[in-house]
Design brief:
Radius of gyration: 15 Å
Order of helices and strands: EEEEEEEEEEEEHEEEEEE
Shape: globular
Strand content: 35-45%
Largest sheet: 11 strands, parallel
Number of strands: 18
């Protein structure tokens, strides 16, 4: 047997939003390809999880979302590791976390045609959906996003950021590119 090794992943393909929902505590989602085919529709999320505890999201590939690719809000004890996000129109990961780690993920070039259609601006990691307590963001590679790692600062929705460690991340081509 020889030849080239292929990317052997179960593909979850959808045109709906969100593409997949993690709705259980203490679950590990590993080795999938989440593929969103939204056409010209905006606001199509990739993977969503709200208010869960103990979720591990590991070694997945995600593509095509026209809104947030991974949207995890009010999550506790969450691990997001070794995922590959590419050709999305909005944020790679958007969420709010307690006692969690985001590490070794790769965020590749956004789909700027979809970004323009949806009047968005893609951030690699966006913490604009709630408060953060004890979060580590480390060893991620973020390429081509308008804001590599974004923490908001404003009165529109009060947010608190406590005990946040950010180190060892590599950001390429950082600059504002959306509307």
């Amino acid at each position: 047997l020889g030849g080239k090794k292929s990317d052997c992943r179960v593909v979850i393909s959808t045109t709906n939003s969100p593409g997949a929902v993690i709705s259980a505590d203490y679950v590990r989602v590993e080795g999938f390809k989440f593929q969103v085919t939204a056409g010209s529709r905006c606001s199509v999320f990739g993977v969503e999880s709200l208010g869960r505890t103990g979720v591990e999201f590991v070694n997945n590939a995600l593509t095509g979302a026209t809104s947030d690719t991974v949207y995890f809000k009010n999550m506790k004890n969450t691990l997001i590791r070794d995922n590959y996000v590419y050709l999305a129109a909005e944020d790679g990961i958007k969420g709010s976390f307690t006692d969690s780690v985001i590490e070794y993920n790769h965020f590749s070039t956004p789909d700027y045609i979809k970004t323009a259609q949806c009047l968005g601006h893609p951030d690699g990691i966006d913490m604009n959906s709630g408060s953060i307590n004890n979060l580590t963001i480390r060893y991620n590679t973020i390429y081509g996003y308008s804001q590599g790692i974004y923490f908001p600062n404003g009165p529109s929705e009060p947010k608190y950021f406590n005990d946040v460690d950010i180190y060892g991340n590599v950001l390429y081509n950082k600059g504002y590119s959306g509307s």
